[in-house]
Design a protein that fits this description.
The chain is mainly α and 290 residues long. The chain is built from ten helices and two strands; from the N terminus they run H-H-H-H-H-H-E-E-H-H-H-H. The protein has one domain (2-234). A two-stranded antiparallel sheet has the order 1-2. Residues 243-266 have a biased composition (Basic and acidic residues).
Amino acid sequence: MLRWHDLFDAIGLTGTWLQTNWDWILSIVFLVLTVRAILFPLFVKQIRSQRAMQALQPQLKELQTKHKGDRETLQKEMMELYKREKANPLMGCLPLLLQMPVFLGVFHVIKRLGTGTIDKALYGWTPAQYDSAAAAKLFGVSIGATFRDGGAAAVLCGILGVIMIATTYMTSRQMILKTGWAEDPQQRMMQKLMLYGIPATLIISAVAFPLGLIIYWTTTNLFSMGQQFWVLKKYPPPLANGKKADPKKVDPKKADAKDSVAETEAKVLGPKVGAKPVNPKKGGQKPKVG
């Protein structure tokens, strides 16, 4: 974050337009972009691993049925299957785990801003850098302020908190709409937890988080939505129930509409009054108008 701040200072982005210290606000935003850009190759590997795990579900179920009651043999054959098919069940957690130290670091740094601490160089900052960050504001509200400070801080933290919660919900919903709800009760429960549980817990977090951290989280969510949209388009997942969408399957409403159009065309293009019916035995000659 300091490196980005130094860069924005060097190019002269030190104004306070709209009562905002854009050098520090953009430093937080570009910190997110930097971290996510570094982790992007791992994210792609995570998606590929997830697709491989989904493709292995039928074989895993067969192994579970075959070695029911023999946990040791089951685990051994499952690991051999993962190794043979180059699937890593732990890959799904890696990008999230690597982001946690950065998130916690930002949390502790921003939380200490404006607390009047004597040890301003605790995180390797100079006193001037610490004082500059402590004075940084977004629309007149300190980035170290929280919803509990009331006034303008409560309004701005509340608005960004709602955006943070909404984008968290939309990111989970984006995935579920693409894959569908799982048939397995445990997987369905996990989907509901991701969709409703985590956004609900963020209501408390939005009250306690400093403004700078809410900016960090919201930026992360927006990046995740764009990244997930690209990944779902490039690596489309199978449906949660393991069935593939049938491209020939017709929507019943559309089918009814087509039937109505066909009936209308039949009435319009049908034989006129007085026309003789076609005799199929005579080669299906056209009806003659009497």
